[in-house]
Amino acid sequence: MQLPEKTFKVLIRPNSPKNEIIGYDDDKKVYKINIKEKAEENKANKELIKFLSKELGKRVKIKSGLRSREKIIEIMG
Q1: Using CA atoms, how far apart are residues 53 and 68, in angstroms rounded to an integer?
Q2: What's the pTM value of the predicted model, to 2 decimals?
Q3: Contact 69/33 with Cβ under 8 angstroms?
Q4: 48: helix, coil or strand?
Q5: What are the φ and ψ backbone dihedral angles of 27, each rounded to 5 degrees?
Q6: How far apart are CA 76 and CA 63, in angstroms?
Q7: What domains lie within the chain, and their CATH numbers?
Q8: Which residues are bridge partners to 9 per DSSP?
Q9: Per-residue model confidence as pLDDT tens digits over 21-37
Q10: Beta partners for 31?
Q11: Contacts of 12 by beta carbon, 8 Å cutoff, 6+ apart
């Protein structure tokens, strides 16, 4: 996954069979990502951060959208 910017939007689908990047929606300008954890007790958010950090090789954080399926992710450093 190559990103030109420090922040980007993702649309997650929690409770999926596995963690994977499905693709990019040009209309909404958002990356679609499946996350295997459920959207309860912040589990899906933690799994998303762990998954994206591994994929990008950099630390990331959720800038906004903690309680939404659509989130803004910021690459740290």
Answers
A1: 20
A2: 0.91
A3: no
A4: helix
A5: -65, -45
A6: 11
A7: 7-75 (3.30.1200.10)
A8: 72
A9: 999 999 999 999 999 99
A10: 10, 24
A11: 33, 34, 35, 44, 48, 69, 71
